[in-house]
Write a structure and sequence with these properties.
Structural class: alpha+beta
Order of helices and strands: HHEEEEEHHHHEHEEHEEHHEE
Number of strands: 12
Strand order of the largest sheet: 2-1-5-4-3
Radius of gyration: 56 Å
Number of helices: 10
Shape: rod-shaped
Strand content: 15-25%
């Protein structure tokens, strides 16, 4: 069953129970009030009849100062006919509770008569057929005799009004339930509209439309749920896009790796076959062997870089303090024989907390890339600066630069902005990818700024403290 119909059914059930109970209590309250009023009126009439009987008894002539039974009958007959507005039945009983006078149709039930005592008034509601009466009883003292006066007051109208009240209220309740059900139906449609919109959005996303969003039409809990759902959908779409990009990058990686293997292997196989199948002079023999050696070294370099990338993805480093001066002297010595570019080094003294061999690899790759991007005789600047939270390294060149649309791709494995230039200088496009993985282990990242024709500036910061790895135990 749909939520809309569940809400509607529960609401109608609660309303029906509420209307039924409240209607019963209301009609019953009106009935009890009217019945209490009739009972009070019947008791008052009984007192009036008692007084009228005693007064009439004093005016009856008696022979022995004793009220005769015949006089009781006469007074009872007169009292019965004195009722002007309602049907009244009387019964007068003697000291032995024997009937002296009774109206036609008076009930022969004497259960109330047995309960009458001096100075008390008793009453009960009795039913005779389809009629209801208030039966009252009181003791009368007249000329030395203790008589019993009983009355029957017809209150059938009060019970008929209760029956009619229940009937009317049932009809009113039914009409109100029908009207309120229609109103509640539209209210439920309005209340559950955000849920229907969310359901439609989930179906669209299940079909693969990750750009579909649920429309927010309220600011209540369902509105906040819609907002949270859309935010979740944004995250899913972004994650899905990242996964697609990662899959594309892996496919590009495999294609580039196969291509990078194919090129040197083709040269190695070709020149090896030339050396095997022909007798060459000394110069051609040297050139062929040199091609084989150069391409072999390029394959070796590429395999080492790939191995380093795989290792850095799995290892957890243990940083040690090292003076920045040690690193810069190492780089100065490494590039001292470089006659094509001039390496300018400036740094501030400080302590770097890192794995020294990995950090050397990062700096070597960055300086080497800067040299490859620079023209012959160009300047490559290497700088170091102490900060409050770590040590900043920077490598700047004034070479060809990197286009803005290529900045996000240069750290991918095998990606080269200028492939012909990189291969001519024994590059494979793995240096920056390795740097990214090493810096990730140091909780750092590359910041690259570049303009085409003006050069590139790459910097990163090694923090003073690196969060320790979580304990596997």
């Amino acid at each position: 069953m749909k939520l809309l119909y569940k809400i509607l059914l529960c609401t109608i059930s609660i309303m029906a129970a509420a209307f039924g109970l409240s209607g019963y209590l209301f009609v019953d309250f009106v009935f009890e009030t009217a019945l209490d009023r009739e009972i009070a009126q019947a008791l008052d009439d009984s007192n009036i009849l008692q007084f009228a009987f005693e007064t009439a008894a004093l005016n009856v002539p008696t022979k022995y100062n004793v009220l005769q039974d015949i006089a009781v009958e006469q007074i009872g007959s007169k009292l019965e006919g004195s009722g002007q507005y309602s049907v009244r039945y009387l019964r007068l009983s003697g000291e032995e509770k024997n009937t002296l006078y009774a109206s036609n149709g008076f009930s022969e039930d004497d259960s109330l008569l047995q309960q009458i005592t001096k100075d008390t008034r008793t009453w009960q509601v009795v039913r005779r057929g389809e009629s209801y009466y208030i039966h009252t009883g009181i003791m009368v003292n007249a000329l030395g005799r203790n008589l019993y006066l009983e009355t029957l007051e017809d209150v059938t109208e009060v019970f008929e009004e209760r029956t009619m009240g229940f009937s009317v209220y049932r009809r009113v309740t039914l009409v109100m339930l029908l009207c309120s059900s229609m109103i509640m139906f539209f209210i439920c449609i309005w209340l559950t509209k955000p849920i229907r919109l969310l359901t439609r959005a989930t179906c669209k996303m299940a079909e693969g439309d990750y750009s579909y969003r649920a429309r927010q039409i309220s600011s209540d809990e369902l509105g906040r749920l819609t907002k949270d759902f859309n935010r979740m959908a944004d995250e899913l779409e972004e994650t899905f896009g990242e996964l697609k990009e990662e899959i594309r990058a892996r496919e590009d990686f495999i294609a580039a790796f196969a291509h990078e293997l194919k090129t040197p292997l083709t040269a190695i196989i070709g020149y090896a076959d030339l050396l095997r199948s022909r007798r060459l002079d000394e110069e051609k023999h040297f050139l062929s062997a040199n091609y084989i050696y150069t391409e072999g070294k390029r394959l070796e370099s590429m395999s080492f870089h790939l191995l380093d990338i795989i290792v850095t993805k799995r290892e957890v480093i243990e940083p040690q303090p090292v003076e920045a001066e040690v690193l810069f002297q190492y780089l100065e010595n490494m590039f001292s024989g470089n006659t094509q570019q001039k390496l300018s080094i400036s740094y501030e003294p400080g302590t770097v907390y890192a794995e020294i061999n990995l950090l050397k690899s990062v700096l070597l790759n960055l300086v080497d890339n800067a040299c490859k991007a620079s023209e012959e005789g160009g300047i490559v600047e290497l700088s170091g600066q102490k900060q409050e939270d770590g040590y900043i390294f920077g490598v700047k060149d004034y070479g060809v630069g990197i286009p803005e649309e290529e900045l996000k791709k240069v750290t991918e494995a095998f990606y080269m902005v200028d492939k012909s230039r990189s291969r001519s200088r024994n590059g494979a496009g793995l240096g920056l990818a390795l740097c990214v993985e090493i810096l990730r282990l140091h909780h750092s990242e590359l910041k690259i700024e570049s303009k085409v024709g003006e050069g590139t500036f790459i910097r990163f910061i090694i923090p003073d403290s690196i969060p320790s790895a979580p304990d596997d135990t």
